Amino acid sequence: MNVQHHYSSLKHSRNGLRAETIAALLQTHRSWSALPDRSHVLCERSDLLTWLARSCLSPFRMPGSLPAVCEAAWPKDVGIMAVEVYVPSQYVEQAELEEFDGVGAGKYTVGLGQARMGFCSDREDISSLCLTVVQRLMERSGLSYQSVGRLEVGTETIIDKSKSTKTVLMQLFEESGNTDVEGVDTTNACYGGTAALFNAVNWVESSSWDGRYALVVAGDIAVYATGGARPTGGAGAVAMLVGPNAPLAFERGLRGTHMQHAYDFYKPDMVSEYPVVDGKLSIQCYLSALDRCYSVYRNKIHAQRQREGLDKRCSLEDFGFMVFHSPYCKLVQKSLARLMLNDFLCHPSPDTESGPFSGLEAFRDVKIEDTYFDRDVEKAFMKASSEAFENKTKASLLISNQNGNMYTPSVYGCLASVLAQHTPQQLAGQRIGVFSYGSGFAATLYSIKVTQDATPGSSLDKLVSSLCDLQARLDSRKKVSPDVFAQNMKLREETHHLANYIPQGSVEELFPGTWYLTRVDEKHRRQYARRSVSDDRPLEAGLLTSSNAAEHIPSPLKKMPRIPSATAGPEGLVISNGDH
């Protein structure tokens, strides 16, 4: 049955529609050229769309409650297709930093749960980090730049108050001729990457989608002034390819969000990279946001289950893995314990004689808002949740423990860490809970469902394989002394906004294939070059073309054009951040 027939049947019989008629119309509503192109019909189309919106997409329905006939219109299993992670090539040991800073042994390594901290010299900025991670994802995935229709950057590392980092990245698209790429930058502390990811998913599921992939980049350089907050720094970037039929699919309607005004962490000084931090308030905001987001999420999934005839409450047991934004690893462990506290307090009749709630009866009547800094509650529930932490969350802290807090990419570094340390068979079918938090503050807890297909060559198998060298990459970094680290922080502090400046950091210390800053001219225009991908070749400034590797991630729609394979080689001398 063609579109014309469906349109006619709908036009003449709106009160007695068949499900198949609505489904077919919704499936094809993005291609209205299939309908007659006469003015009187255009008016009817508009009326038809309005009626469909009111009938199937009513704003008064609970999220996730859309009837199956309407869900048929969306691309299936929209989510993350590929992930690339970039961390700087040098780090400092937290144990050595404790001694250097003159604090007690264990303050950073035990109290914060941090082992190493990655950092950037003045050779790297937010644009170079993002250039590196985007090009690596495209090269490793074998994708053409023409297959990307949306690119959005989530970052709080601002080097220009007007020009977005996304526009700098567009230089990677120049040879392909693709300038039809939506999206700019999104900023709210560590939440910007999640906001960009949601925008990408929403775009693919919308009438604006043209069949191409969305690309999301989360990147930051987290640095602090000398003092107690400095060991919670870090740096890095994560790029994620978003499309339909993904191995990591977003569960539709299952997002719990909480947003509130607070000055827990902010950057009011426009000439400094350093934030103003209220440490105690920041922890309270983080934990209160977690409580609220978890409550909203549980209510939504419970409502979905009730519509399906089930009356099962949501708890930690529903998640195969749970990952969190990680300012420092110890806070993540406390956060998982807090989810168990929420489960305990919301359970109508918890078993305190056996099972995970054993011995917790003394805390039955505590008020959740009074427990943010209650050591007795914290200790009891960290002990009670220790097994769950080992099974669901500990693996997610690989990058956080070894590289530190990356701000916007932090939670996605945790997701990558889970993928890197499990087989496709261990991941298949699992629900992964994701809690993202950004100071100021904005937070969401949502879930991802892993595909059931773990066969060799499947999209999940390729995704996991692409991250299997993550530990090796972390181990290949160069360790520097705390004194060298402090000198680099001082150099960044003095030079990060200078004009007519040539960076002093060593290019030879960068990983092969890393983009780096070559100079900032007298008008603050930045120019970048890329280190050779091969160690046995001399350093070269310029963009390398994609290799002859076949594209192993197909386009969402096969009609999208492709760049013919080309021999790898240099492709120009420099790349800049533009002339204005």
UniProtKB/TrEMBL annotation:
CoA binds at S282, K330, K334. One of its GO terms (biological process) is farnesyl diphosphate biosynthetic process, mevalonate pathway. InterPro entries: HMG_CoA_synt_AS (IPR000590), HMG_CoA_synt_C_dom (IPR013746), HMG_CoA_synth_N (IPR013528), HMG_CoA_synthase_euk (IPR010122), Thiolase-like (IPR016039). Residues 554-580 are annotated as: Disordered. Residues 74-247 form the Hydroxymethylglutaryl-coenzyme A synthase N-terminal domain. The keyword Nucleus does not apply. Keywords: Cholesterol biosynthesis, Cholesterol metabolism, Lipid biosynthesis, Lipid metabolism, Steroid biosynthesis, Steroid metabolism, Sterol biosynthesis, Sterol metabolism, Transferase. The keyword Lipid biosynthesis applies. Pathway: Metabolic intermediate biosynthesis; (R)-mevalonate biosynthesis; (R)-mevalonate from acetyl-CoA: step 2/3. GO terms for molecular function: hydroxymethylglutaryl-CoA synthase activity. PROSITE patterns: HMG_COA_SYNTHASE (PS01226). The active site is at E156 (proton donor/acceptor), C190 (acyl-thioester intermediate), H325 (proton donor/acceptor). Its EC number is 2.3.3.10. It catalyses: acetoacetyl-CoA + acetyl-CoA + H2O = (3S)-3-hydroxy-3-methylglutaryl-CoA + CoA + H(+). It is an enzyme of class 2 (transferase). Residues 249-531 form the Hydroxymethylglutaryl-coenzyme A synthase C-terminal domain. NCBIfam families: HMG-CoA-S_euk (TIGR01833). Catalyzes the condensation of acetyl-CoA with acetoacetyl-CoA to form HMG-CoA. Belongs to the thiolase-like superfamily. HMG-CoA synthase family. This is Hydroxymethylglutaryl-CoA synthase. It comes from Sinocyclocheilus grahami.
